[in-house]
UniProtKB/TrEMBL annotation:
This is Metal-dependent phosphohydrolase. InterPro entries: Cyclic_di-GMP/3'3'-cGAMP_PDE, HD/PDEase_dom, HD_domain, HD_GYP_dom, HDIG_dom. It comes from the Bacteria. The chain crosses the membrane at residues 9-27, 33-50, 62-85, 131-157, 169-191, 197-214. It comes from Streptomyces lucensis JCM 4490. Residues 242-364 form the HD domain. The keyword Protease does not apply. Residues 220-415 form the HD-GYP domain. Keywords: Membrane, Transmembrane, Transmembrane helix. Residues 412-446 are annotated as: Disordered. PANTHER family: CYCLIC DI-GMP PHOSPHODIESTERASE TM_0186-RELATED (PTHR45228), LIPOPROTEIN (PTHR45228:SF4).
Amino acid sequence: MEAVPARARGYVAGVALLALLCVLPLPVTRAPWWAIGLLAALYAACEHVVRRRPGGTFYPVLLAGAFLLPPPAAAFVPLPAALFVPAGRGPGPARRVWRAARPSLAVFGAARVHWALGGPDAVVAPDFPHALLPAGAAVLAFCLILTALDGGLLAAAGQAPAHRAWRGLLSRSLAPVAVHGLAGLMMAVLWRSPYGPVAALLVLPPMCVSWWAFDQYHRERAAHQATIRALVQAVDIKDGYTRGHSERVGHASVMIARELGMDDERVEVLRFAGILHDVGKLGVPTRLLRKDGPLTPEERRIIELHPEYGHEMVRGISFLGEARAAILHHHERLDGSGYPYGLAGGQIPECARIVAVADAFDAMTSTRSYSRARPPEAAMAELERCAGAQFDPRMVTALGRALRRWGCPRASGAAGGPGAYPAVTADEPAYRTPPGEPVPSTGAPR
């Protein structure tokens, strides 16, 4: 555990101690050891399969244990998997301890809730719906404990501020765990039926098929991410300014989209749009992208082709959806003075208006060869001044609310630390428009 921060080591050790206390009463329980062993072996086998995909989880057997066994016995079921299934990448001891303690505590809590509500009797009752209430409460307890533990680890490891560490964890896990809980309940009912454990095993094949389909979706999504990373890295190599800029614009675009109440699918598309908005720079000569002085009119016309280059590059990537329109139109202006087509007002796609604001904000708050960074407050004031003519006021207002709530967009590996904004000295202006550039706020079309 030496590679884990000290606070996280202490946190994991505390969770492990709690899990050990949950399992200690196991010898005095009257649960049959063959049932405990069979469920533990099934869970270990399932973990061996799903852990081939990082982050894979498969809880039906674990939740069946919560519905069938006393709490200490249910808490024992995940332990053999943690001991014998390969831990994958990362610090082995810390990963194994965490993988043992986390599900052990969660299934212990679920079993306690299930038993307190009379769940074991409901499982064997002939009227099956009576089993749903205690099982549903147990699944909810299971999710709540996992959420509490995961958020605590994020905060202890410094991966998220304490006030944001738990945000969204429960909502993301509740639906898939509920499906696993229903499968676990089916296993428990069949296990207690006259057909016995063999019948319970018949629940696993369809669940494995559904997990496989879900895994394929995640693999496809990972391939999408790899495509985007390759494109962004190519632009970063060509134009040093974009290193971190694309990631921050993607983050800011997500912040705006969430403030506007967009659904998760559109938010993801806006993230793609922000990250890839400058991919067309691959078609612009490097000498122009790295030029320190003013651009000639001819050079400017060449640079202003980069949205069209970018759109042409990503036109065949179907999963980008409306992000392709954002790449093409993110330099359009509400008053029609932008490029490449001089669209105005509602003619500009909504996604492009979002990326335009995110791009302008990061351009003003980043140090470039011809300008120093503005403080975020000054950049927002400039965006508000240009709202209605250059930028959509709705997007500017949404970004302002998001910044007050979440802080500035951050990019990993940025100079000065994640999300760092260079200080402005008293004797140097916060922003200097490059010679020959008419844009008063965003600092350039490049």
